[in-house]
Amino acid sequence: MGEPETIVDTLADVGQLIRDRGSTLRSHVHERLFEAIPEARNIFSEDLAGAHVDLPRALAWVLERSLIDEPLDPALVKRLRELAKDHRRHGFPPDTYDLFGLLLGDAIAEVVGDDLPSERVNAAIALVGRVCSEMREAATNADEQGIAYANAAQVTSVEKPAYGVHVVQLEAGMPVEYVAGQQVPVRPTQCRGEWLNLSPAVPPNHFGQVEFHVPPEVPVEKGEYWTIGAARGNVTLDPERDALLVGIGTGLAAVKALVFDLLSQETTQDTRPQVHVIIAAQFPAALYEVSTFTALAASQEWLTVTPVVDHPDNPVAVSGDASGDADVTPVAFPVEKVVSGVGMFWGRQIVVSGPDDIVATVYRALREAGALASDIQTITPTGADQWPVPGSPD
């Protein structure tokens, strides 16, 4: 006879229902949260569009990876603790997690309680209590260690270098902790309750100077203060490998930070890997920073720069106040075809930064052309899927 089959009893069934009924769960949580803490309503936008969007999926992710009556997985605990430190930017004291755990447990019972055995629902509620305890402890420890919950940075300048792009310079007065290629949650003054996932366009520095590239629909005025939360993401470059860096639209910010970070590293021209930067936009008036990169490439033998546009001519609707890099003649060809062309990516590590849909198109083109998934890193406004369903790569 063979060995008896081991049955792994997670709470995946509860997690799946919560994924399916996520909007209902959010509504229940918000109703109870605002009753218990009325002032909490002020930190979210009027329509609650961005409030706790990931909560159902994050909760499901935890349930799908947790065993009944077993300690939480150490890797899961580590992630929960990092999340708790990140959420300190919202301004709630650590003991709020105790209340939130109770509210979330009540919401789970209401949303899925009629469709699952009571022991399954109760196990999920108990697990939520343990999760919130871990997060409360992590937030408390961060407070006791004097770790800043966020940085307040003043807008010192706003430039419009090209169509559809605003370059915002800020100063925090103290170092903002991140590494080139990471993103930070940013709340502009005029965006109540809305956090943007932005890539700093310069490497970190001792002066707390930060640069962001944003679309014009993000309201900004010189002199106002933006709130910057804890950095996230793990896009990095191997300093010994050649690289292909693709910046699409405002996605150029992350590429700029990576290039200038490489420039700051102590090494000789002969030992630096070759770096090819693709600066992509829809049309010439939307290109920017090309002159900066080409001037840098003229003095750095390891750097090559290619501007690319989908369309060679500017649309009639483009106003004349932002002409882009008018002196540069770009390659007029779809960026995904340029990047996946013969010899472009061979043997290189690849970073693609830009809008979600275009980055996805470039990624598919690279994979179809033979690029290894392990060689491609992507940076988008929504970021990677942090809470995948079971069976997806974490």
Automatic annotation (TrEMBL):
<feature type="domain" description="Globin">
    <location>
        <begin position="31"/>
        <end position="135"/>
    </location>
</feature>
<dbReference type="GO" id="GO:0020037">
    <property type="term" value="F:heme binding"/>
</dbReference>
<keyword id="KW-0408">Iron</keyword>
<dbReference type="GO" id="GO:0016491">
    <property type="term" value="F:oxidoreductase activity"/>
</dbReference>
<comment type="similarity">
    <text>Belongs to the globin family.</text>
</comment>
<dbReference type="GO" id="GO:0005344">
    <property type="term" value="F:oxygen carrier activity"/>
</dbReference>
<keyword id="KW-0813">Transport</keyword>
<dbReference type="GO" id="GO:0019825">
    <property type="term" value="F:oxygen binding"/>
</dbReference>
<dbReference type="InterPro" id="IPR012292">
    <property type="entry name" value="Globin/Proto"/>
</dbReference>
<dbReference type="InterPro" id="IPR000971">
    <property type="entry name" value="Globin"/>
</dbReference>
<keyword id="KW-0561">Oxygen transport</keyword>
<dbReference type="InterPro" id="IPR009050">
    <property type="entry name" value="Globin-like_sf"/>
</dbReference>
<protein>
    <submittedName>
        <fullName>NAD(P)H-flavin reductase</fullName>
    </submittedName>
</protein>
<keyword id="KW-0349">Heme</keyword>
<keyword id="KW-0479">Metal-binding</keyword>
<dbReference type="InterPro" id="IPR050415">
    <property type="entry name" value="MRET"/>
</dbReference>
<dbReference type="Pfam" id="PF00042">
    <property type="entry name" value="Globin"/>
</dbReference>
<dbReference type="InterPro" id="IPR039261">
    <property type="entry name" value="FNR_nucleotide-bd"/>
</dbReference>
